[in-house]
């Protein structure tokens, strides 16, 4: 899930020795950025969300997205 991407982002920041960052999430990256803030708030200095939602998808929206991938 998205939590794996957030963990990967923090691991990349660690590898690059970046203590804090301004995150910009575009589309799906917005979900990743929000999850990163939720789980690692001390590592995020500021957050920019572009062309994304500021909350999680409803279960219905998740199913619609999954169905469209199956087509």
Summarize the structure in words:
The protein is an alpha+beta fold. It is 54% helix and 18% strand. It has 3 helices and 2 strands; from the N terminus they run αβαβα. The protein has helices at 2-15, 28-39, 59-70; strands at 21-26, 44-50. The chain has a two-stranded parallel ribbon with strand order 1-2. α2 (28-39) links the parallel β1 (21-26) and β2. α1 (2-15) packs across α2. The longest helix has 14 residues, at 2-15. The model has no long low-confidence stretch (mean pLDDT 90).
Helix amount, in percent? 40-55%
In order across it, which strands form the biggest sheet?
Answer: 1-2
Q: What is the CA-based Rg, rounded? A: 13 Å
| Mean pLDDT metric | 90
Question: In DSSP terms, counting alpha (H) and pi (I) runs of 4 or more, how many helices?
Answer: 3
Q: What is the percentage of strand-forming residues? A: 15-25%
The ordered string of helix (H) and strand (E) elements is HEHEH
Structural class, from secondary structure content? alpha+beta
How far the N terminus sits from the C terminus, by CA atoms, comes to: 21 Å
Which secondary structure elements does this structure contain, and how are they paired or packed?
Elements: H1 2-15, E1 21-26, H2 28-39, E2 44-50, H3 59-70
Parallel strand pairs: 1-2
How would you briefly describe this protein structure?
Helix content is 54%, strand content 18%. The protein is an alpha+beta fold and 71 residues long. The mean pLDDT is 90.
């Amino acid at each position: 899930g998205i939590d794996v991407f957030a963990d990967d982002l923090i691991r990349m920041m660690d590898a690059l020795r970046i203590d804090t960052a301004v995150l910009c999430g575009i589309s799906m990256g917005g979900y990743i950025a929000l999850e990163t803030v939720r789980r690692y708030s001390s590592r995020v200095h500021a957050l920019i969300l572009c062309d994304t939602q500021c909350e999680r998808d409803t279960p219905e929206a998740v199913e619609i997205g999954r169905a469209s991938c199956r087509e």
